[in-house]
Predict the 3D structure of the following.
Amino acid sequence: MKKIVVFLGAPGAGKGTAAAAVAAKTGAIHVSTGAMLRDALARGTPAGLEAKSYMESGALVPDETLCKMISELLAGTADGATVFLDGFPRNVAQAEALYALAPAADAQIASALMLDVSKEALLERLGGRRTCPKCGAGYHVKSLPPKKEGICDACGTALVTRADDRPETIAHRLEVYESATAPVVGFYEKAGKLRRIDASGSAAEVAALVEAAL
Ligand code: AMP
């Protein structure tokens, strides 16, 4: 049996940072659907090209593409693994699809962690976010700077601001979150799987709370 832990929270809440840190410590597998799509786009695969226009405007990529990606990924994961899903499900239809597709991959949903942060903190975090275009590592100019300014600690590549972290796209992503993704929190609450995490602290503090909630 494989165990799924879903990471929920608005863009900028720190899902990716917390999931990566706790996965590195516990041996869980960190799956970021946003990172998978950016990688598919960089490699020019059909799924990546299809996702391009949606991602650039901050809209959601069609559910079918995401559900196929997640089914394949879970099927290819070793028995006994814990999988951190960061960025999926993004709406209630995807949350229902995850319940439907998990058994075929011998996986079950253990919990959904909701990372709570104020709107002001989200805007501050998104504006300062920098990403490595090569290995996908995430940084923040103030709270999580790389050792050498503008350069990825892990692979030495020059960091970039993601196209969808520009101010006009940020506003749209937060709207999409409110209308499509926020209801997913209620979905897991009803299923008795929801744990709320205060994600207003430092990256290390949030990672410790996440680890304790597993
Ligand atoms: P993220 O890195 O999680 O902020 O995702 C970046 C972008 O990828 C999103 O704004 C969406 O366009 C797309 N994306 C990531 N995950 C999903 C998903 N589960 N469903 C639809 N689109 C997604």
User: Anything to note?
Assistant: The first strand starts at residue 2 and ends at 8. The chain has a mean pLDDT of 93. Helices lie at 15-26, 33-43, 46-57, 63-75, 92-101, 119-127, 167-190, 203-213. The chain has one domain: 2-118+174-213.
